[in-house]
Amino acid sequence: MANQQPLLSLIRNLASRIVPAQTDAASNESVGQNQWYQHAQKMFARKDYWAALEAAERARLKHPQSDDVWQLYGAILQAMGRPQAAQASLERAIELNEANAAAWESLSQIHTASGQSDEALKCYQRAAALKPEATALATKQVEILTHQQKSDEALALAEKLSTDFPADANGWTSRGEALAQLERNEEAIACYQQAIQLTANQPQVWFKLGCALHASARFDEAANAYEHALELNEYQPQAWHKLGLIRLDDFLAAVEEGRLDEAQPLWWEAVNTGHRGLTQGWYQEEFDTLYTVAEMGHWQLAHDLLKEATHNERLTPLKYAVHYQLTGKTNLLEGLPPAKRVAAQALIAQWQQLAA
Known about the structure:
Elements: H1 4-18, H2 35-45, H3 49-62, H4 67-79, H5 83-96, H6 101-113, H7 117-130, H8 135-147, H9 151-164, H10 169-181, H11 185-198, H12 203-215, H13 219-232, H14 237-256, H15 260-277, H16 282-295, H17 299-308, H18 316-327, H19 331-334, H20 338-355
Helix pairs in contact: 2-3, 3-4, 4-5, 4-6, 5-6, 6-7, 7-8, 8-9, 8-10, 9-10, 10-11, 11-12, 12-13, 13-14, 14-15, 14-16, 16-17, 17-18, 18-20
């Protein structure tokens, strides 16, 4: 025990340097005036969560009946990845003051993270009722309703939001999302465009605009929207994937129209685009596209592209099946692993059946 005393003294000395010394303030000092509460807010804003937690604990001891202190304490615990302790603190804040909108909002975030969308929605509704001017709270409700497939409710709330706050881009974005879910894509496009006029530097809005344009078969405009989204933030796998799909369609159009000299560059442009995002389904898109080229009878083009496509193991059976169609030789098939050989033979049998 004696060996621990110097270490304990050192910790206390360091703590006194990084947090303000406790004052002999009057017992009726307001929470906002408390130095520990102020320091907790400052450290929380800096994302120094351990220092914030220590200061909030001291403020909580000083003001155990303060809902603001309990709310801050819960928000810090939430940021530290301790949702159960955070929820208990936030619920205590609400017990002390049901009008604490920040506590309701933080509690809704915890419920959202745990998949309790109904509870999250109720909390957002309570927070929004206390802060009707906070449009982000209404936007969150629209997101939950949209996710729950309650499209009509989501649209009604989004329409009210965009009507009450026409200069707020979030309302128009939410309205566009609700309309897109209802497959009212042209109306969704108009809403996203309105949001972009208000705030043009939001990559997710540009991406959503691209999706709505894509669904409306306005492919060139969709590609432009995806490209704009990626200019603002290149770390968007889904945007690269969607743009890659448009490039694959451009490639197939060139093949169908007999513009084979243009086809190969278009193929590699599509592949390089898709690989920037490399979502789970991208390799299957490559397979499906080259399979279509083979089915169209462009065996040599398919062979040439597959020969260079060493990046995608899923293409191996197709590569050897196309080689057989061109040469009639089975010697290469025999060298394949059993599973891939069976897959290649199945493709060959399928094409032979179609030809017959």
